[in-house]
Amino acid sequence: MSTIRVVLAENNADLRSALQGAIDDEADLACVASTGLFGEVVGLAERHDADVVVLDLELDGGSALPLLATLRAARPQTRCLIHSGHSNAAIVRGALDAGASAYVIKSGDVDALTSAIRESVRP
Amino acid sequence: MRLAEFIRSDMSAILAKWEEFAATCEPAASSMGPLELRDHAQQILEAIALDLSTPESAEEQALKSVGLARDNSPFRETAAQTHAVIRAQSGYDIKQLIAEYRALRASVISLWTDVCRPTADHLQDVIRFNESIDQAIAESVGHFSAQVDQGRNILLGMLGHDMRTPLQTVRLTARQLLRLNAGSEVAVAAGVLTRSSAHLQALLDDLVDFNRANLGLGIGITPKDVDLEALCAQQIEQLGVGFPDTPLQLHVEGDCRGYWDPTRLHQLLGNLVTNAIYHGAPDQPVRIDVVGEDAGILIELGNSGPAIDPQMLPLIFEPLQRGKSEGHSGLGLGLYIVREIARGHGGSVAARSISGETVFSVRLPRRTARSP
Predict the structure, then answer these.
(1) Do A108 and B220 touch (CB under 8 A)?
(2) Cα-Cα end-to-end distance for chain A
(3) Which CATH class is domain B3-153?
(4) Domain ranges for chain B
(5) Is the pTM of this model over 0.80?
(6) CATH number belonging to domain A4-121
(7) B 186-205 → A contacts, CB under 8 A
(8) Do A85 and B173 touch (CB under 8 A)?
(9) Largest Cα span, chain A
(10) Is B166's pLDDT higher than 70?
(11) Is the C-alpha dihedral spanning A72, A74, A77, A82 positive or negative?
(12) pLDDT digits (tens, 9 = 90+) for B39-77
């Protein structure tokens, strides 16, 4: 099975670095690029041919929600996951309605995120 | 002069007294001008004067005395209710809110007595005035509490969200440290970080759930097909890493497959096991029996140790009940969350504590994806 190419957009630099390490620890996943900036996400997904984009809801430069539609239009083959500290049902529903493949609430259990990444690209 | 007439004609003097008292309510009053200090006092007094001039039957008087007064306000909120919300937002506490009414009651009666020397014929006015003030206090306190509750719930919600990012960073960094194989000292330190941050995560999850339940949103159950035997084995293994000194003895029998929320059952099991470890006899095993029955699943979790006071048993599932345990402090929400998760699945939880053993029993109906 080929490696799943992940672009990580996380606002917090420390968490971004920790998540990048945790994703790279998985044999079938590779974090090919990461950013905290709203304006860089689509370009990184294009340049690195991302299979999955993991989006923090609040990025430096704006909410990640509009990116879901932009990414879907520009790269329909790329799956987008929201990874957020918000657990409010209305926010979760809003993100899924806007086109997110999954919504993972931030917790210490990184397996929930890596499983969701694998699940999102499963045919 | 009747009291209603006096209130209308001497409004300025009464409001001056109100303002004078409101200005003493520190620290909130220190940054408020005359308009803010008076706030809705005039509207409250006008409502009281209107009430005093409106005939009231004995039945209406009896209803008002138990908080069932008729609503004469043409607005959605009465002046007393709006005043309470504004006072809460301005930083007044509830004692200061009530003290304003106490001062108002005293100043109106004192000013009226000075001006018109009331006679026994005016007794009914005093009684009606006191009822009106009590009604205004009841309206104010209800809205003040609701405003404070709303503020607290928003704060808890924001706290839950804002803590997740740094907490996840700590947990992932501890995990990376363990993987470095950088010697036993680093491994021990990483183990401490892992356990403490997992504890913090559990507290945070409980706090967020408590807040959700408090807002009337329920605990949130997303059922999936679950093999409870595998789920329990995985959770017990994870918990065993955090509590290496306590043997966790899992025994499973029968068909344990069903349609439940796996994340919530992880949380339920985690809360029950950590509760047993914290409150049980040190180093004694914790027994976890999972039995698949025809109608559902029975999870029994037993630990030896001091018995729970029988009078306390019915209360231990209520929120914010903090039991005593050596070296551990919690919010007292763990067992409450267990009960809410069980209820969210249509199940129940019970506890018994006899002969040095405490047992928690969770029953969950067996549901399938096609169940209603």
Answers:
(1) no
(2) 13
(3) mainly alpha
(4) 3-153, 154-214, 224-365
(5) no
(6) 3.40.50.2300
(7) 197-198, 201, 205
(8) no
(9) 36
(10) yes
(11) negative
(12) 999 999 999 999 888 888 888 877 777 766 766 666 678
